[in-house]
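G., before I forget:
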Amino acid sequence: MVYKENYPSKLLEEAVDAISSLPGVGRRSALRLALHLLKQPQENVHHFATAITRLRDDVKYCSHCMMISDDQVCSICSDRSRDHRTICVVESVRDVMSIENTGQYNGVYHVLGGIISPINGIGPSDIRVRELVERVAALVSPEALFEADADGLEGSAGEVILALSGDVEGETTSFYIYRQIARYGVKVSSLARGLGFGDNLEYADELTLGRSIVNRQIFKP
Amino acid sequence: MVYKENYPSKLLEEAVDAISSLPGVGRRSALRLALHLLKQPQENVHHFATAITRLRDDVKYCSHCMMISDDQVCSICSDRSRDHRTICVVESVRDVMSIENTGQYNGVYHVLGGIISPINGIGPSDIRVRELVERVAALVSPEALFEADADGLEGSAGEVILALSGDVEGETTSFYIYRQIARYGVKVSSLARGLGFGDNLEYADELTLGRSIVNRQIFKP
């Protein structure tokens, strides 16, 4: 049943309007949430509203990698034990959290804040490609290479990992970025594609399956 | 995959805490919503927070029926064309909205604000039964009956419709209320139980099916 738009209170209607503007929240769920909030202690509701407002108003973005941060430089970029010559390029903050949760990566990140998508009107200048190019340029500058030498890294020019999604937009963005940074002579890699752990062969698409055969690896039992 | 609790920002973590306190919203959805809000224009987020705060702070409850309202008396109770001698007793604000949306009811309401549930520690004094009893008493007072007479209602004592859910707690609450108001001589009714429109006989439970046979109605094609 669809609720018709006759709310007993203008305030309720406005709250439902606001809540249902969230992605994946319909007007009926929004009504349920609004009535839930109405039953909560006043200070809880104030705390809820404040937490959201403060997030939007006060959150900072790391000046190096554009990751969400409470400081000018995020905890990853300020961690001296991480490899600052390996930059993993991701679309969003959530991707950084996902990769961090794997515990398998010790480099730094670059958050693009979007993906090139002509259909949605998002071009290269709408995402942080320029900032990435600047970082890569700095990585291969004579001073940086000299420093790396001193660190015993044998003048390694560094690596950029393109960790974007495997759809058309991700591939387009990867290709665009590759063309922008290839001239600096850094190693450019992308995520391994293949069958997921636990995936059934029967349901894998041909492209993925094809790639996992071509890129097959030595079996280590 | 479950996100481990390592957020890149304390503000983000606090917003996720707040959002995931909503019913039916897990931490992962909460993160998605928080990151969505981060991308919205600042004034939209402020509007969102304000709408929720104002709902909690400024909403009123009708002094007659306890329905959510922007005024002291709700639009239903202040509507002279409605039958004020028929009171439909419901658990929640949402029930009023549901019944109003049927367009089949022209009386007034009484919102209990809960249901008697010993397992959840909710007793008769936690819901608005006393207020209902007072309304029923006023309905059958000599003055009210005199007024009704003048209105050509032939001194009708009025009716209380118990529109509570059909589970144990609803039935318990209905029975409790019945015992409180029966002595006033009002007519007490409850919602018709039976097969829903479009319901398949095969899947109906025995109680419902039994009741719909006993309370069968003349077929009107």
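The helical segments of chain A are 10-19, 27-39, 42-58, 93-102, 129-139, 142-150, 168-181, 206-214. The beta strands of chain A are 60-61, 68-69, 83-90, 107-111, 159-162, 187-190.

More on Monday.
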